[in-house]
Amino acid sequence: MHTIMRGAGVFIRQLAWFGWLQARSCAFAVALLGGMAASTLLPPLPAARYDLLLVYGILLTGVGRLLGWESRREVAVVAVCHVLGLAFELVKVHVGSWTYPEPALTKVAGVPLYGGFMYAAVGSYVCRAWRLLDLTLTGYRARGTAVLAVLLYVNFLSHHWLPDLRWLLGGLLLVVTTGSWVHFVIGERRYRLPLAVSFALIGFFLWLAENIATYLGAWSYPYQLHGWEPVSVSKWVSWALLISITFVICGRLDSGVATSRELDELRPGGGREGELRAGRVV
C-alpha cells in the first residue's frame, strides 16, 4: 500500500510539473487569446479591433523577447511561422474557406495582418516546449519528415485546384515517423512519446484553441457567420498534419537528435549528465 501511495504521489507531482511546463510553453498563445477576449469587451473606439490586435501582437512579441520567452533565433523561427501563416491565410480567405468580417486598415486581400500571429503562437509554443522540456529525438528521419511536411503545407493550399492528397501524404508521414521518438524531461525523469502521437496531441489542443478563437471572433467559417458553431473535428486532423511543418522549422533551431546509447549515458550515473540542453547533444 505504501508503494502504491508513493507511486501515486510521484505521478501527481510529475503531472503537475508537466502541466506547469506546458503552461509556460503556451505563454505567448495564452496572452494572444487573452488579448482577443479582452478586445471583444472594448467600447467603440476610433481604431478597428483587428488593427488594435496587430499592435497588441507586435507589443506582445517585444515584451516576450525582453522577458526571455524566446531567444533571438527563436524569434526568427516565430517570424517565419508568421509569414507562412499569412500566406496560408491569403489563399484560404481568397477561396472562401473562412473570412475576417470586421473592417480594418491593415487588411490585405481580406486578411488582417494580425492573422499571422496565430501561427506565430504555434511556433512560439513548439520552440519553448523544445527548450523547457529538453526535447531530444531518436529515430528521426529529418529529410523525409521535412519533405512530407512541406508537401502537406503546399497541399493544403493547392487542393482547391488540384487533387487533395492529404490522406496519402498523412499516411506517408505516419510511415516516415514510425520509430521516431520524442524524449522529454520532467524534473529529473526522462520520458518518451512517439513523434506521430505528439503531432496528434498538439493538433487536438490547436483544434480546441481554434474553437476559442472563432468564438471570440478572430475569424469565422462560413457556417459560423449567422451564429457560432463548434469547429469541425476534421480540423483536428488538419492541425495534426500541419504541425509537422512547424516542428520541422523549429527543429532546424536545434540538432536534438541523439542515439539510444547517448540517451542511456545521459541518465543518472551515465557520466554525461548536463550535456543535453535545449534539445541538443553537445
Provide a descriptive summary of the structure in words:
The protein has 282 residues and is mainly alpha-helical. 60% of the residues lie in helices and 8% in strands. It has ten helices and seven strands. The protein has helices at residues 2-25, 27-39, 49-66, 72-94, 116-132, 142-158, 166-176, 195-215, 234-251, 260-266; strands at residues 107-108, 111-112, 136-138, 181-186, 189-194, 276-277, 280-281. The protein has a three-stranded antiparallel beta sheet with strand order 3-4-5. β1 (107-108) and β2 form a beta hairpin. α6 runs antiparallel to α7 (166-176). The longest helix has 24 residues, at 2-25. The N and C termini lie far apart (43 Å). The model is unreliable at 255-260 and 266-282 (pLDDT under 50).
Strand order of the largest sheet: 3-4-5
Helix content: 55-70%
Number of helices: 10
Distance between the termini: 43 Å
Query: How many strands, which pairing sense, and closed or not: the largest β-sheet?
Result: 3 strands, antiparallel
**Shape from CA axes?**
globular
Give the overall pLDDT as a whole number: 82
User: Which regions have little confidence, pLDDT < 50, spanning 5+ residues?
Assistant: 255-260, 266-282
Briefly note the structural class of the backbone. Answer: mainly alpha
Task: Note the run of SSEs as H and E.
Answer: HHHHEEHEHHEEHHHEE
Radius of gyration: 20 Å
Number of strands: 7
Strand content: 5-15%
